[in-house]
Design goal:
By secondary structure, the chain is α/β, with parallel strands linked by helices. It folds into 2 domains: 2-142, Protein-Tyrosine Phosphatase, Chain A (Alpha-Beta Complex); 155-275, Four Helix Bundle (Hemerythrin (Met), subunit A) (Up-down Bundle). Helix content is 55%, strand content 7%. The protein has helices spanning 16-24, 40-45, 62-74, 89-100, 109-116, 123-131, 137-142, 155-175, 189-204, 207-210, 214-239, 248-269; strands at residues 2-4, 7-10, 29-32, 49-52, 79-82. The radius of gyration is 20 Å and the shape is globular.
Length: 276
């Protein structure tokens, strides 16, 4: 999605083909606002510089807005800004960066998110887009920014990145009728459910979770149990005859995990920065 002649917003470049396409578009700098560690090595193969300036679904903090604005103003372009799927955080980041840097008018900021398909449930992202204002050049001139290739992120956020990756695999498996997808024969349904269960188990052992409200822990524990149930049901079904009917419990466990994740995000992750 073209935000400005110098700035493009999109999803994670996942392989050589994606980086090669960015190179063919003339992109010089990639800015990741995702929590996942950028693939700096592959980007460098194609002459692309990576900058890691992550932010959450709860909005773009004022300090990050300034850093993003300086980045889109000063770094070599075209600049490609991405999150994971390219629908929520990256359009918000690109929007506030371009407005703050004076590249686009503030009146366009919210419409960029709407055009990208950003979910209105991410109220913090829309709030950031609504309140952003152009920054003085002198302020950006004085701002000292390191523009790191990779940034340290909290353990909880890092765990969520891994969980999202496994969840994407489970979606592919579900779309294939809970069998290995033809386009991804390496994905074993029961193994992906096992990985999801381990993500929940690991989270429950972190110090960060120990400081969260009881409801946060309850949702995690219930999801861990549902993931275990999903794994067991898938293994039992996979071990049965090829013609056996798929157990309805598979869909039930999957739905429970999805519902718990959504509830947890709404209550804890996606609360706008201004309401915390």
């Amino acid at each position: 999605m073209q935000i400005h002649s110098k700035v493009i917003s999109g999803g994670l470049p996942e392989d050589d083909e994606a980086f090669e396409e960015l190179q063919s578009l003339g992109v010089k700098t990639i800015i990741s606002v995702d929590g996942m560690k950028p693939d700096v090595q592959t980007a460098a193969k194609y002459g692309l510089r990576y900058v890691h300036l992550p932010h959450g679904y709860d909005g773009v903090p004022d300090s990050r807005v300034k850093e993003l604005a300086k980045a889109v103003r000063d770094l070599d372009g075209p600049i490609y800004i991405h999150c994971h799927h390219g629908k929520h955080r990256s359009p918000a980041a690109a929007s506030v960066a371009c407005v703050a840097a004076g590249l686009i008018p503030a009146s366009q900021s919210v419409s960029i998110l709407e055009l990208a398909g950003t979910s209105p449930n991410y109220r913090g992202l829309f709030e950031s887009a609504r309140k952003v204002k152009p920054l003085e050049d002198a302020l950006l001139d004085e701002l000292k920014v390191e523009f790191p290739e990779t940034s340290e992120i909290p353990p909880l956020a890092e765990a969520m990145v891994a969980m999202e990756h496994t969840n994407d695999h489970l979606k592919l498996v579900a779309a294939a009728g809970w069998r290995s997808p033809p386009e991804h024969p390496d994905l074993d349904p029961a193994h992906e459910a096992l990985l999801m269960k381990e993500h929940f188990a690991e989270l429950l052992r972190t110090a960060d979770v120990g400081q969260k409200p009881d409801e946060f822990t309850r949702l995690l524990r219930e999801s861990e149990e549902a993931a275990q149930g999903l794994e067991d049901a898938l293994r039992q079904w996979q071990g049965a005859s090829a013609s056996s009917e798929r157990p309805e419990s598979i869909g039930r466990f999957s739905t429970r995990i999805s519902a718990n994740c959504k509830a947890c995000h709404e209550q804890f992750r996606d609360v706008p920065l201004g309401e915390k």
